[in-house]
Amino acid sequence: RMKALVLELLAAVCLVRGGHEIILAAFDNFKEVCKEKHRFERLMEYFRNEDSSIDFMVACMQFINIVVHSVEDMNFRVHLQYEFTKLGLEEFLQVRGGRGS
Fold first, then answer.
1. Distance CA 81, CA 90 (A)
2. What pLDDT score was predicted for residue 22?
3. Apex CA 45: angle with CA 6 and CA 32, to 5°?
4. Which residues lie closer than 8 Å to 66 by C-beta, 6 or more apart?
5. pLDDT tens digits, residue range 73-83?
């Protein structure tokens, strides 16, 4: 439940003036520190984990939705969508949807 609460808090910060940039900078920093190839890589690993709770999965989707759709610039929005697509979000959702989960 703690991971879900953290994502809910991060999503709320995204909606505050200047918050979106802070959240993206934090994920950029995390990527560098943890030697990830892509931003949001660890988030997607947790999301795809079979042991993830429904609360966490819902919070994760809400966070992704807010990160992508709280951007005014359409080109940047498409870029953010592509980042998540590249990490397998659409594919994962199709597989999960096919299982009735």
1. 10
2. 96
3. 75
4. 11, 14, 15
5. 999 999 999 99
